[in-house]
C-alpha cells in the first residue's frame, strides 16, 4: 500500500517528521483522510486532533488550526502550535480552560470574546487529545 511523508511544523519546531501509512486531518469543513499518492491539495485546518498511522499503530497530535498541503506524496501541516498527545501538559490545559471560562463568564467588555473562545477551544481539545495517548 506504500507510505507518505508527514511533516507537522510550527514556528518553533518540527513536531512530526515521519513516513506514515495514512493521516486524518481536522479540516475546517470536516475531517479528511490522506493516503499515499493522494492528489495535490491545500486545505485550512481547525483546532483539532490530527491522527496518523505508523506500522498499524495510530498516533494523535493536537494542532491549533493551520494549513495542510499535499504535494508529491508529502503532507506538510503548518500550525501555530502542535503537540504529540504524550507531550500535552493536561494540568496546563485544565488551567487554560478555567481561565478562558472565567473570562467568558465575566461578560466584561474589555475581554476579547473571540480570543477567549479560541483559547477555550484549544484547551478543551488538548484535554481530549491527551486522553488518547
Ligand atoms: P496557555 O494559555 O496554556 O499558554 P494557549 O492555548 O494559549 O495555552 P498556545 O498559544 O496554543 O497556548 O501555545 C503556546 C506554546 O505552548 C506552544 O509552543 C504550545 O505547543 C505550548 N503549549 C500550550 N499549551 C500546552 C499544553 N497544555 N501542553 C504542552 N504544550 C503546550
UniProtKB/TrEMBL annotation:
Start and end residues of each ATP synthase F1 complex delta/epsilon subunit N-terminal domain: 4-82
SUPFAM superfamilies in UniProt: Epsilon subunit of F1F0-ATP synthase C-terminal domain, Epsilon subunit of F1F0-ATP synthase N-terminal domain
Protein keywords: ATP synthesis, Cell membrane, CF(1), Coiled coil, Hydrogen ion transport, Ion transport, Membrane, Transport
Gene Ontology MF terms: ATP binding; proton-transporting ATP synthase activity, rotational mechanism
GO cellular component: plasma membrane; proton-transporting ATP synthase complex
Coiled coil: 90-117
Domain ATP synthase epsilon subunit C-terminal: 87-131
Topology within the bilayer: Peripheral membrane protein
Family annotation (CDD domains): F1-ATPase_delta
Predominant location category: membrane
Localization: Cell membrane
One protein family per Pfam: ATP-synt_DE
Subunit structure: F-type ATPases have 2 components, CF(1) - the catalytic core - and CF(0) - the membrane proton channel. CF(1) has five subunits: alpha(3), beta(3), gamma(1), delta(1), epsilon(1). CF(0) has three main subunits: a, b and c.
Family to which this protein belongs: Belongs to the ATPase epsilon chain family.
Role summary: Produces ATP from ADP in the presence of a proton gradient across the membrane.
Protein name: ATP synthase epsilon chain
Species for this entry: Desulfovibrio porci
Amino acid at each position: 500500500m506504500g507510505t507518505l511523508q508527514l511533516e507537522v511544523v510550527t514556528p518553533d519546531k518540527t513536531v512530526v517528521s515521519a513516513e506514515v501509512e495514512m493521516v486524518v486531518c481536522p479540516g475546517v469543513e470536516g475531517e479528511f483522510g490522506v493516503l499515499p499518492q493522494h492528489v495535490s491539495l491545500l486545505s485550512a485546518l481547525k483546532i483539532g486532533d490530527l491522527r496518523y498511522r505508523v506500522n498499524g499503530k495510530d498516533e494523535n497530535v493536537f494542532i491549533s488550526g493551520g494549513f495542510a498541503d499535499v504535494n508529491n506524496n508529502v503532507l506538510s501541516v503548518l500550525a501555530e502550535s502542535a503537540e504529540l498527545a504524550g507531550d500535552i501538559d493536561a494540568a496546563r490545559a485544565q488551567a487554560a480552560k478555567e481561565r478562558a471560562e472565567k473570562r467568558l463568564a465575566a461578560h466584561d467588555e474589555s475581554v476579547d470574546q473571540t480570543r477567549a473562545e479560541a483559547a477555550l477551544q484549544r484547551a478543551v481539545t488538548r484535554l481530549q487529545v491527551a486522553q488518547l495517548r
